[in-house]
Amino acid sequence: MSKFSEEELIMIALILDEEEEINSKKRKRKRTLWVHDLWKKREQEGEFLNLYNGLVDDEQKFYEYFRMTQYSFHILLGKIETNIKKQETHWRKPISPRGRLAVCLR
User: Fold this and answer.
1) How far is CA 19 from CA 5, 6, 73, in A?
2) CA-CA distance, 58 to 22, in Å (whole number)?
């Protein structure tokens, strides 16, 4: 037979239920930022955007930077673009395939 009466078991169950509720509230994580403030400025201040536009105007500098001609860069980009393209969401704009390739080559 049980050492506890029915009333005592009910009280124990209620106490355990309250403790579980308190512990579950403590376990909830703080929300983290999906996109850091630094990355939000990428389109205006990012290295790729500023540098790439300057390199496109100078074939020699483009070659020195990427170790390939602009023509080769665009051929390679055309072959892999669909594989490295990311989906745009409401929360963030992805890095362009051209930017991804530039970072990879660099």
Assistant:
1) 21, 20, 61
2) 64
- How far, in Å, CA of 50 to CA of 99, rounded? 11
pLDDT of residue 26: 63
Q: Is pLDDT larger for residue 74 or for residue 48? A: 74
Tell me the percentage of the chain whose pLDDT exceeds 70: 87
DSSP assignment string, the chain: --SS-HHHHHHHHHHHHHHHHHHHHHHPPPP--SS-HHHHTHHHH-HHHHHHHHHHT-HHHHHHHHSS-HHHHHHHHHHHHHHH-----SS-PPPPHHHHHHHHH-
Amino acid at 88: E
pTM: 0.59
